[in-house]
Amino acid sequence: MCPANRTGHAVDDIKDFAYHLGMIGFLIKKNFYDLWDNMLRVVLLNLGFLASLAIPGFSLGLVFYISPAFIPVFAVGVLWCFVYLSAAAISLKAVSDYGSFGFADFWANIKAGWKAGVAMGIAVFMLVLMITFVLPFYLDMHSLVGLMLAAVIGWTFLLTLVSLQFFFAIRARLDTKTKKIFKKCFIIFFDNQAFSIFCLLHTIVMTILSLFTFGLLPGPAGALLFLDEALRLRLLKYDWLEANPQTEPTRIRRRSIPWDAILIDEREKTGTRTLKGLIFPWKD
Questions:
Q1: 277 — phi, psi (to 5°)?
Q2: d(CA 284, CA 271)
Q3: CB atoms closer than 10 angstroms to residue 191
Q4: pLDDT at 5
């Protein structure tokens, strides 16, 4: 390859990187606007989750101090928390789509999403067992085989964790069949690895910020809203790939997604606001 071609590819890479940064920047802005406009709904959802979290928390105390017979109560309480998150994610989809939801919608979404919530609860339980019992077991073998198996378990845990972050968003937006939801979680991750890692880091930052508000903002509802909006915008890439004929290898086309063009309508719907407009929207 001649130097001129190398330079051309370098310039193209910079442009592609700029496109992706523009998409991420818009995602953060849209999520902030939606979170701001629906702050009361997000706070109420977080309050409901905190109240739900009290069920397994209280029953766990009963298990330790009174009797192990309360373990089923603890398990049901944990599963209910995941069912609640599933319903919250389905409800927040309306916000991501420039709409809103009401109390009646949330209860209807509990009926619609309870199976996915239970499935996610069981999956998380298996991940907890993997990291608290299986991984230490192999590490305690003090052998090369044990170390290799521990590494496999560790990487499996991390890959599953970063993939399953989109579980509720996929249930709300793409599919209702549990098996397909799990499958699509991994498909989304392996096709958008850097973006998935960014989303996980963003969720961690939101979780840390939530500690200062006692889980009210942005809280789990804020994290679910961000992940749904992240998935929604990312899916626009697949619409573009499907709409445009394959004039070049797919691998090359995926590195040069024209986000500026794809997000034109989204940017018009979201708009821009001043600080005055955020605080006093009726005066802007």
A1: -70, -30
A2: 13
A3: 13
A4: 41
